[in-house]
Amino acid sequence: xxxxxxxxxxxxxxxxxxxxxxxxxxxxxxxxxxxxxxxxxxxxxxxxxxxxxxxxxxxxxxxxxxxxxxxxxxxxxxxxxxxxxxxxxxxxxxxxxxxxxxxxxxxxxxxxxxxxxxxxxxxxxxxxxxxxxxxxxxxxxxxxxxxxxxxxxxxxxxxxxxxxxxxxxxxxxxxxxxx
Amino acid sequence: xxxxxxxxxxxxxxxxxxxxxxxxxxxxxxxxxxxxxxxxxxxxxxxxxxxxxxxxxxxxxxxxxxxxxxxxxxxxxxxxxxxxxxxxxxxxxxxxxxxxxxxxxxxxxxxxxxxxxxxxxxxxxxxxxxxxxxxxxxxxxxxxxxxxxxxxxxxxxxxx
Lengths: 179, 160
Prior knowledge:
The structure holds two protein chains of two kinds.
Chain A: E1 3-6, E2 14-18, E3 24-27, H1 30-39, E4 44-45, H2 52-60, E5 83-87, H3 95-104, E6 110-114, H4 116-120, E7 143-145, H5 152-167
Parallel strand pairs in A: 4-5, 5-6, 6-7
Antiparallel strand pairs in A: 1-2, 2-3
Helix pairs in contact in A: 1-5, 2-5
Chain B: H1 6-12, E1 18-21, E2 24-29, H2 34-43, E3 51-59, E4 64-72, E5 77-85, E6 91-93, H3 102-113, E7 116-118, H4 143-153
Parallel strand pairs in B: 2-5, 6-7
Antiparallel strand pairs in B: 1-2, 3-4, 4-5
């Protein structure tokens, strides 16, 4: 069969097409292929607890528009989401809720810690009786985005870093947090 | 114009030390006399403090201090009532029979300082979880340690 190689910039592999254009051959690795699909269709969970959420909403709206990068559908239920953007301070009262939401999300799932408060506790780091000093104590975090609050550009940058990270992961092995 | 109740208060309570605090008249009352003094402040026709604006507490490390901000809407004057109490036995009479707004203020102070208001209809924690240890706004409180213990005891830590 005579085939011609086609070039697609983003596709992780080689695509060949015969002269009629009806049948194609794809040569790729399953990890690269699955991760390419996965990283370009992340469904974030709507989860905002303070001012970082305002920036997150702005990043989702028409001006910054995170759907350009594949974060189209923000979900209101953790069972339909695979990315949780923790936007805002996590208090000790909120910690069990965050943990439960994370546990309810189906695998593979990813966590972005947005803003100073949930990276280290931020302004509430010392002598605070009510704030969790870093959500990485509670859930495994993939990307930290510093700022108070980070601008939408920073959030988009962090999300694109997460996509890069996903592309380097094993697709069908769930990487559990280190104990 | 705002009135100052200085003259009437020295007339009714000649024994109480009277001072100024941030341009407001302030009196310091002993723990045991508090309820009788407040009843008079509330009921005396020329004082008529019908509104408890704010009720707070401060930990002065040697003792605890509770501060009542009173206002009279009919006479248009304000008063601050302070009382000092021992940290070992922090008890005060509840002001709920005099001012209804004391109910939530007293719950908050009980939550943060552990001061027990006797006669309060429903004294329990307002902001902190029910099973919380200690009183967070006391100066002797180690907040970070208690917060870590809370996460540990609720099995929220990642490496548990």
